[in-house]
Amino acid sequence: MRFPTAFLGMCLACNSSGSRGIGAEPIGALPGPKPPGDGERGHPESTERVPSPEPGLSQPAPDVDLALHNGKHVRLGELRGQNVVLFFYPMDDTPGCRVEAQGFRDRFSQFRAKNTTVFGVSLQGAESHQAFIDKEHLPFDLVVDGDARVAEAFGVPVHGQVTARQTVLVDAQGQLAHVWRNVSPDQHAAEVLAMIPPTGH
Fold first, then answer.
1. Geometric angle at alpha carbon 70, from 67 and 76, rounded to 5°
2. Integer angstrom CA distances of residue 161 from 11, 121, 146, 168, 200
3. Cα separation of 79 and 77, whole Å?
4. C-alpha of 39 from chain center
5. Do 166 and 179 touch, CB atoms closer than 8 A?
6. Which residues is 169 bridged to in the sheet?
7. How far apart are CA 89 and CA 13, in angstroms?
8. Which residues are tagged catalytic?
9. Sign for the pseudo-dihedral over CA of 72, 32, 114, 91
10. pTM
11. pLDDT digits 0-9 by tens, 26-73
12. Which of 122, 107, 120, 133 shows the shortest CA–CA distance to 196?
């Protein structure tokens, strides 16, 4: 076990059913976590992070670099014109994380019908992500965020090698539309889907 002190916290996080419930709210000013020591390398340097907005107002999403499991990179700003869902999850192939990923998988065609691209984000490397994709037949890309720069940009807490289970929705204009800070894995994909307006609205 590479990070034994983080394993118990990871298990609790991944098995959490979100007893506090699910809520969508405007992006708030939460402090970004510090990178968790030696993580995966390869992310370009970035100091961008979510600024502090007035309550209820949208704001531009940070133009972060997304390093994908297949070795490709895409900047968030390049996806302007479509909605983007970034769901941060604690760890590949753990119980709650499987349930959450399966929810996005099973509704993937509905997300595409709403002009929406889905990314899962966690701290594990490309090999772990690919194994998770293969096992669960995931039709979307997973982001390798080993140095926690993407999590930090969106104010998602990181504890050791475990990312908090949170989700960000970026609209087609590149604005931060909603954030979910309390997530219940089994119903989350359906709730995110419901927050995205039909194409053409």
1. 35
2. 12, 13, 8, 20, 40
3. 5
4. 17
5. yes
6. 85, 178
7. 9
8. 97
9. positive
10. 0.75
11. 344 333 443 333 333 333 333 344 444 333 446 899 999 999 999 999
12. 107
